[in-house]
Amino acid sequence: MPQREREKETETEHHYTFVLKQQSFPLSTVSVASQHCPSFKCSRVSSASRYSFDSVFAVVVMFFVPLHLGLLVLSLGKVLLLLLKRMSHLEGLRANSSHFTLMGEPFRILGGSIHYFRVPRDYWEDRLLKMKACGINTLTTYVPWNLHEPERGTFNFQDQLDLRSYVSLAAEVGLWVILRPGPYICAEWDLGGLPSWLLQDKYMQLRTTYPGFVDAVNLYFDKLFSVIKPMTAKGGPVIAVQIENEYGSYAKDEKYMPFIKNCLQARGINELLLTSDNWEGLRYDGIDGGNEDHTINPRLKKLMITYSLIYKHHHVFHGSRVPYDMLLIKRVSINLYMFHGGTSFGFMNGAMDFGTYKPQVTSYDYDAPLSEAGDCTTKYHLLRNLFSQYHSEPLPDVPPAQERRAYDPVVIQQHLSLWDSLHFTDKPFTSERPVNMENLPVNNNSGQSYGYTLYETTITSGGTLNSRNNIRDRALVFVDRQCVGSLDYKTHELAVPDGKGARVLSLLVENCGRVNYGKALDEQRKGIVGDILFNHTPLRGFTIFCLDMKPGFMKRLSDFKSSSVPGFFQARLYVDGAPRDSFIRLPGWGKGNVFVNGQNLGRHWFIGPQHFLYLPGALLRSGQNQIIVFEEEKADDRILFAENPDHGKTIDVYKLPFCTLL
């Protein structure tokens, strides 16, 4: 790094330290939400402290030395001492009885959520600049444990997951940051951000003080907060940290929330602490004072989380919500969830299960002010006009829209059947009984987290196959590689036709997404999770293939020739000039996933509601690009592109009976 850049970096870090260095005070309840506002979620916050005189003195000296003003500092004498005395009264973000303060001055949080893991890194700056130009002053983001520790003891904070760079970029843009590190985050993300290898322990009790969970959290937090800490007391723009997420609606262990709070403080997190929950949940979230929230004090500071949209499930139309300026009139601090939703790329979507299992779609557009592709919507401009009334200076100009392109259709040129692809997988595993995904001896014994698993055994007759509801979540059933039907959470029985001699029975099981919210988290093991009966007798003698379709596997695929389904269908997209964003359309296809240059864009399924997959130009390169469609059921001969998606009709969610549950 050039000398001047090193000096600039040092100056910036010391400046942040001067603004944010704090100590810890006990957690106190200061935030509630009205039960008459069902679309809002409320955060509870704890107090932050003043700077110490010594800390400010050290910071001021370090701040001036890189500017070659050391002699000036020494000559200031009494002037400097008076200045330091004033600085000793500066505060970080603090919650008083009627308002937040930052550096001792009243501060209204105009927050917005953008998840770095849902936005290509090349687009972080564009999205944050648009956030700043809208009048937002605070960025909030979740931190997904399952991405940062994909295998037990193996951590990743690089490239797309470079949290420190993301927060630093927010600071450069001029945004404060609120971190929501979990360990559970919900976020309509697989298992609420918890790593699936936790479920290898058959006694695991997630989000409790169960020793197996506590040990894993401690190891993860040791690593995570070694990354986060420099962005707080040692020089970052982080002004608040959330304790867990929505625990009041879960509330299995009264010792759990104090444990998480202690985890943060023991690792040097001294910033303002928050919890987040719905109205009833605030009464049962396990933090001291939680049972006092039913007594509403109108002087207490309110921090509302407003929802842009209800997330989408497969086969369910999307809905929209309307923001209200009455919150700002009441001087309520707000956070827009989401300000920019982005995309749940790959297999990372979550699911809901309140009696009926509903996997969520790949798009996390959320009807947010910034669209999935980063466009400024009508909602964005309305909010910008509203927020501008609460800023003393003009807002920055809105960055120009990114160009998109509807590329010409590409024709499928090569085919590879699922069966021919099996020799590109890791060595199959044999077991007398079926084994769920998480307990397969793959990925350094951390199990399989996502994708498909193929189970094969032998049968000698026809009859009835009964899943006993042990298929998680959907299985295509084959006899001698011919599809005979499917099993899922609704269909548990299937007739298998008669045949001669021994035949291979294959079950291709898809993990459609683990539940991310509710009390079913501990039951989210995937694959085949128990005995499958054939003519009332449990099947035995399985060969099991892991098909998680990671980039390494996709790159190994070759010898394309067979065009049967399920299978992989390859096309080439030639990009002339600089790559542009686009959307992929597959109107003649059935169900599967799309991969571009080895990267998993997400799931496609003809039942909808999502019929367009966002293709960031950042994943393309000038010249030749590889596109592979994994298709389960029905393949077409071409792939189409569009400049803009069509999300179908919009409905008013307030007219739906389930709205009262949100």
Automatic annotation (TrEMBL):
Q: Does the keyword Transmembrane apply?
A: yes
Beta-galactosidase galactose-binding domain sequence ranges: 566-625
BP term (GO), one: carbohydrate metabolic process
Q: Which domain of life is it from?
A: Eukaryota
Q: Which GO terms describe its cellular component?
A: ciliary base
Catalytic activity reads:
Hydrolysis of terminal non-reducing beta-D-galactose residues in beta-D-galactosides
Question: In what residue span(s) does the Glycoside hydrolase 35 catalytic domain sit?
Answer: 100-278, 327-389
Q: Which residues form the Beta-galactosidase 1-like first all-beta domain?
A: 447-547
SUPFAM superfamilies for this protein:
(Trans)glycosidases, Galactose-binding domain-like
What EC identifiers does the entry list? 3.2.1.23
Checking InterPro entries in the record gives: B-gal_1-like, BetaGal1-like_ABD1, BetaGal_gal-bd, Galactose-bd-like_sf, GH, Gly_Hdrlase_35_cat, Glyco_hydro_35_CS, Glycoside_Hdrlase_35
Which terms in the Gene Ontology molecular function aspect does this entry carry? beta-galactosidase activity
Q: Which UniProt keywords apply?
A: Glycosidase, Hydrolase, Membrane, Transmembrane, Transmembrane helix
Instruction: Give the transmembrane ranges.
Output: 56-84
What family is reported? Belongs to the glycosyl hydrolase 35 family.
Q: What's the protein name?
A: Beta-galactosidase
